[in-house]
Amino acid sequence: MPTAEALRVADRVTAEALVAGVLGNMAALEAVLAEEAAHVRAGRLREGIAAAEPKAALAAAYMQGLEVAKANAVALKRFHPEGVERLRTAHKRFTATVEANQTVLDSARGVSEGLIRSLAEEIGRAQLPSGYGRQAPAPSPYGRGVRSGPLVLSRNL
Fold first, then answer.
1. Are 124 and 146 in contact (CB under 8 A)?
2. pTM score, whole prediction
3. What is the per-residue pLDDT across 108-150, written as a single tens digit (0 to 9) for each?
4. Residue 1 CA to chain centroid, in angstroms?
5. CA–CA separation, 102 vs 137, rounded Å?
6. CA distances from 91 to 88, 145, 146 (A)
């Protein structure tokens, strides 16, 4: 997609092409976001993460297309007013899809943070010896004053 300075809408054909390009990028990005959210909802994180590269490329193309459309807003309204209305309608739908995707990703992040926190608490609790007398942490081989050993996580889910 050309930059905002490079593309100037001067006729209806160019306006239609610009609107079609932005709508195409928006639809493709919307499909990737919906697919990502479906994978994360189902717990298939690896498949959900796999869409990160195409999502970034589509988001960049979409944002660049919006910048070109903003730079040519007056010409678009003059040469292709129905295209501008289609862009507004599609953008409202797209915004709802982005919000739903962000909600799913925030929920997954919250769950994973909760799991890590509870795991760290459980590891810390397991290092306190149970017995008579004052509860004190076991001596650490990692240095003085360190209450627990390092928490090691596997990135292979």
1. no
2. 0.70
3. 889 888 888 888 888 777 665 666 666 666 666 666 555 555 5
4. 22
5. 41
6. 5, 55, 52
Q: At what angle do helices 12-41 and 81-126 cross, to 10 degrees?
A: 20
What's the CA gap between 121 and 105, in Å, rounded?
24
Using CA atoms, how far residue 154 sits from 81, 94, 121, in Å, is 54, 35, 18
Cβ–Cβ < 8 Å for 32, 96:
no
Percent of the chain with pLDDT over 70: 75
What values do phi and psi take at 7, rounded to 5? -105, 120
In the Cβ-directed half-sphere of 15, how many Cα atoms lie within 13 Å? 19
Q: Pick from 29, 26, 23, 27: which is nearest to 53 by CA?
A: 29
Provide φ and ψ at 84, rounded to 5°.
Answer: -65, -40
Give the CA distances from residue 125 to residues 41, 57, 71, 88, 94, in Å, rounded to whole numbers and listed in that order: 31, 45, 60, 55, 46
Give every CB contact of residue 3 below 8 A, 6+ residues apart in sequence. 64, 67, 68
